[in-house]
Records
---
Amino acid sequence: MNEITLKMREIARDLLERGEVQRVLGWEKGTFPYQSTPFFAETPADADKLIWDEYCLNNLAVYLLDFRYGEEKVALFVKGCDSRGVVRLIQDKQFPRERVYLIGIPCPGLKDAAAAAKLPAGAEVPLADKCRTCTHKNPVLYDVLVGPEEPPAKIEGDLFAGVKELEAMEPEERFEFWQSQYERCIRCYACRNVCPACNCRECIFDQTAKEWLSKEVNGANNQFFGMIRAFHVAGRCIDCGECERVCPMDIPIMKLNRKVIKDINELFGDYEAGTDLEKLPPLGLYSADDPEEFM
Amino acid sequence: MANHELAHAPGVNPLVPVAGKIIKIVQETPDVKTFHVTTENGKPFTPMPGQLGMLSLVPVGEAMFSVTSQGPDHLEFAIKKTGLLTDALHEAVEGQAVAVRGPYGNGFPIEMCKGKDLLFIGGGIGLAPVRSLINYCVQHREDFGHLQIVYGARSPADLCFKEDLFEYWPKVPNCRVDVTVDRGDENWTGPVGFVPAFLEQLNPSPENKIAITCGPPIMIKFVLQSLAKMNYSPEQIITTLEMRMKCGIGKCGRCNLGSCYVCLDGPVFTLAQLNVMPNEY
Amino acid sequence: MQTFKKEAIEQVLASWAKDAAVYVPVSRAGVKEFGPWSPKVEPDFTGNTRLSPKGLMFPQTETMYSYTVTEGGMGVVLEEIDHKPARRVIVGIRPCDVRSVQVMDEVFLTKGYEDKLYKEKRDNTLLVALGCLSPLPACFCESMGLNPMAAPGADAVMYDLGDSYGIIVQGEAGEALVAALGELVKDGGQVPAGEPCTLKVDAEGLTAKLQKMFEHPLWNKVNRKCLACGTCTYLCPTCHCFDIQGKNKGDEGYKFRCWDSCMYPEYTLMAGGHQPRPSKKERLRQRFLHKLQYMPERYHAWGCVGCGRCLAYCPAQVDITRFMQDVKEVAIDG
């Protein structure tokens, strides 16, 4: 039992015993050693199921949306990426700061559960893809922090290397790349549903009667879905990589999101979504010196 | 292959409709119209009372409706304006092309009703499915006992099938019609009040009776309470369910309710059957 | 049993490909699914496919009929779209997926209506299964009454014998398949011993218990972490719900059907706004009960074959075996 787990349980039990919050969102152990899974502690006794280990991959911020219309106060364990998701939800006015209690966990980077599932027990498991490019190992917003802070993230190589590869392609080549990726898409919407930036009350892709997007699953419709979603989260994507992690068809969705992040950085100056409650996304505010090349 | 009887000719795709035409449109109320539909080969199919038909307005879409009535060469669908497809249907004109497939579902249990007194309780457009059974009873008058029709709508303007209610059915031997409205107008001299309360006032005896009810969910909920108060047993009460449906042949899963598919095993159920099914309709 | 050398697999597949389209598990960008075989295609017989083979009989999107509106709306011409399915042999389908085809047969071919689009493909399809020597961590088919080394619904079953494959025919169609191999096969070999599933759950009495649990508070808990996406339903080999939609271009268009998911809010939403299953609690309950209660009641067969795809690929690790275990542990009166 690691110290952070013990501390987590203590904090959660205390919050629930005092009635400070109605539930505490964390992780419990899943069916397999390489699975840690979201868990909602609702009684002090539940707190003993909470754990912290190298497989607590799920970004819990998205679950705040399940409680957005209620009155109750929720406590949430947050890694760096989870905390950025919470900042975004607060900025988007999807969840009020005063209804969430944030317990920060400095995160050294987690392991790749999908890779672990294929490896023999005891083998070295690689770092999760989404953690290779992490820029915030420490939570950016919290009420209490569990454990010592991690040293600032050092990213090896260029965060946008994958984007630059795509930008270097000829348009036809690039089109073929995305076509071959999105031909696989089965439109399960896991990418959307796991995303804290996808917080529309009613998603256009669910308005099937209006047929913004046909339910016919083919390359063109799937690309339309991928592209519209990327634009909808433009400036709000926190780069947590959850969409790509959960895609059952292994579509490199973050390449698309990072392209948009890179474009925004170039157009409006460097911006990291969800790192500062006071700093609104460039597409979410008006500034007199916004570029307007199209005018 | 499994032992079963096919409800369609082998090799035919039961999901493909046949082309037809709207030959007549009757404005029942401000938001209900009855559409008479036929095909090149005459009546698309011959449903039993309570069965359903999939009506398609090409290219807008298709939806399942109960067949309100039928003539020798056509089917009638009474349709309320409630969404994309029904809005478009209400814009349709006589002569316009449609497509149709069916019949689907079990229909009313005629055998169970034979020899019994029947109490029909309808609200709003909910009279549409019940009307097919009333007309059947009228046509086979000697097979059934006393008929009583209790019907209500929001206002006098919203009463469906006025000709049936006020001209035709009251003249049927041993048949009584009671109509109420939620709110009257300057010309309305009949009863005012909600259907369940009106029903309790009338207090029809459950003796040798089957009650058949259809209407908005909230009306059905309170009608069932009223019937229970008047000592009707769940086996004596019949209702029809409305669920979203796509295929009509018990495959697509939309109308799955417990181990039943409403399009195939319903839409007509006794309350006794519904009581043991998940309450998800 | 007959056997053929592993290096002869290409010749074996080529023999079957003479008068049929042969489908094998193939990896595309790391994702394994069934794809058409040709001499250029390397079959990947390790593990199971991520996408189940259901799409071969029940494609995710499939056109049904075209329509043309004529005379300004006064006429309409409908034309069925003929798919003319070729004879097919699916090679390397696992026992769980063979079972799922049998379950789909019940759904699509019984209770008074035959689904033509399914039937014409199914009638032309032969299944050559591959026994599972070592089930994957998420496999629990044994708990659902299957034997990972047997596929009673297949036309033939293959076994990995090390440097060769053994093949046992089951029925006439299977015999013809092996006969077509001629000199490639020789008699001999025996069914090897397989390992049991490591994931186990007790399904005994589950349906009867669930019949009493529709309103049980357990449902408030199991749905919490579910994200209400469609991954489980789309990867599931027995999920068969579909939608029927149209694609219009002016006065012309076509109807198609496509997979749909009971996890989506739009699935039960009625014109006029009535929503019989308003939240993910009701939707997840529907999915689990459909597999574990409604299908056993209606078709006398589990709607779950224990392939483990849903629990391996759920974004939130919702695990149907854990749910089954939770149900086991619930104490209810009567």
---
Amino acid sequence: MKLRRLSSILMAGLMAAGTLAGCSGAKTDATTAAAGGQTAAQTEAEKAQSTGGEKTVIKVWSKDRHDATYVQNKVDEYNASNTDNIQVDYQLYTDNYAQAIDMALQSGELPDILVQQEQMFDKYVNEGQWADFYDYMDSDMKEYFKSVVYPGYNELDGKLYFIPTTGTTCRLFYNKEIFDRVGIAEPPKTLEEVVEYAKKINTELSKEGIYGFAENMKSASSGLQRSMCIGLERETGLVRGYDFVKGEYDFSQWGDTLKLWKELLSDECAFPGCESLDIDPLRTQFAAGKIGMYMSYSHAEPGVYQNQFPMDSSKWDCVPIPTVGGKTAGKQYFTGTGGYVINAKSTNVEKAFKVYKDIFANEDYLIGYYEGGFGVSILPSVIAKAKPAQDFQDKKWLLINDIDALLPKPPHTAFASGMVVEGEDMYKTCESIYYGNADIDSTLKDLTDRYNKAYQEAVKNGSGHEVKIENYDPMNPTLQ
Amino acid sequence: MKDWNSKSALPRSKSMKKNLQAYSFMLPNLILFTVCSLYPVMWTLKYVFFQYGGYGTGVPRFVGLANFARVFRDKVYWESVIHTFTYGFGKVIFIIPLAFFLAFLLNQQKRGNGAAQSIVFLPTIMSSAVMGLVFYLLFNAYNGEVNQYLMAAGLIQRPINWLGKEHAMKTLILTAVWGGVGNYMVYFIAGIQQVSGEAIESARIDGAGRLQTIWYIIIPMLGPILKIILMLAITSAFNDITNVMVLTEGGPTNATMVMSLYGYRYFFPISAAEATVPQYGYGAAVSVISAAIAGLVTVGYLRISKKLDEIY
């Protein structure tokens, strides 16, 4: 009886502890901050204030995990050494970054400095939420960063809102050892060759669990935006299906590419289970030598294969994403990263800019960032002085190149919430083609009609505007 | 003669005090219900008539019944309704008999049955998201343990794509059954323990075998509790979202998209990788119609299940 009572109490206690542990977890600073609680840094800052230091706390929010350790170290160094009585509180939000910003804005708790991200930038820029850097930059700073000022991108109506210091684009990553084993001398230059090589690898090596091609298709938008869509930009000169010359969508030009992708993702070519594969499991399999080729972002992979899933650097390389027949009608999109926006409605805008200038726009920081493999620098001065990781020296296509350019925003990006597309978006529609039985031509025609209808409706009801660029040349794209 | 049990029989002050006590006990629940259930429902109902992209996207635009008209045109939504019914049916058809079998087996006074009950119940208190992740690791096609064991045992020659279009729904149902069977087992145990021992004894004296006793005596006497268990199983199947979100995100090609997840994605991205433009108005319309469908099913079930109230 006593034993039964004791074991019941123990069991109940274990279950309660498990439930409570599951509920609370190990609170990170980010979780605590998001819950409206106090982070360790905030407590420390408040202690400093209460002991008469009167330090100004500047809050910085980031969404990036890959450079968090590096940034935190720089922030700690700054906090220890600055003589401006400033304490920087650096917080990480990762997956719920956009939602955290929305909530913070609604409650008036937006931080002073935030990592720039397209969605949150576009959403609030017209509401005067972001500070104009030109109000605070001196002439030296303007000169130093003038090569990364892009009218229509980070400079709008004569105001500069953020400064991208690194860039990322998408490439085809391939395993050189697997290629050698099946006798492939050169990486593919056309999409047809990608299919051919993937089939060859599957035929000869699938018994060893080695497959020709993989992509993280669990999320169609994530998989396609780092692969097929990028290739299509170069192949067609359209930006996500939008023709800036004609001012309309035309997805019919995607037909040939989709036919090849359907083959590429079939059992003949693809790694089993691609339709439920996430990017990190894909990377582990690539690092384990199980995948011949895949496509992804250029800035992240070197760090991944150095630190996260170690792989001998000599075993992999990357090339531009091949197109159908090697056709090139335009440039492909590169994203400027490493930019920060400053909250224009903060009570400490000037000090926030000082922090930004002293930490994130500091040349030593930028050189260390590039050398540490956290991002590919796009600043000429940094590139000239830095000694980047061996991967970035040996693998030329990891760097931003002539085939990459900043591209203008099509309507569904320029005024996303105003353009309501009925039915599935372009990514899910493509999924119904390569993983389903949808007829390519009629499906792409329907997709074109739906997007154009949504665009025209947005223009008509005032929630959007006409998007057309006079004399737009896809080989020399302009942003406006 | 005065009825000393009626309220009017009590002195006024005592009656007020009694009511006050009752209301004060109900108050926390009322507040939670208002804040967490009623207010969000009202908020949702407001936006069904608007096109709204969320905070920071401007003023909501009145569109009348356009959102509802769009729902009726939306093929993917109606496919998600079918998937919801498939998932619900699949879950109930396996979980109820299994829970009953386990309850009958583990209700007996044998050594270890108590511990076994606790083990079977454990998945119920586990986070659905964690469960989804674990099953993702077990069932993935390239290095999941399930395929490895099946291939080692010679039952299959090549890996089965458990999360592909053909098998994803089955894997989801399996996850749901594993996660919920302990909960329903506990309900069945409570019901079995209330079955009259005399009725079972009489059946045995009359020569009924074990199976006959179960079928003709125990199951009919479980009628009221079975009705509640079935209703809970059906309503929870209609509301299941976490498993689906974590395991398949409704894919591939919407093969496992269910009603609740379909509406959810118009408010929030399903995953960090998902490109979502919120459409609160349309999401609200989807949610309202989904709730109506779930309500109709529940009402239909309650009418059909009245027979379960009859005990021989």
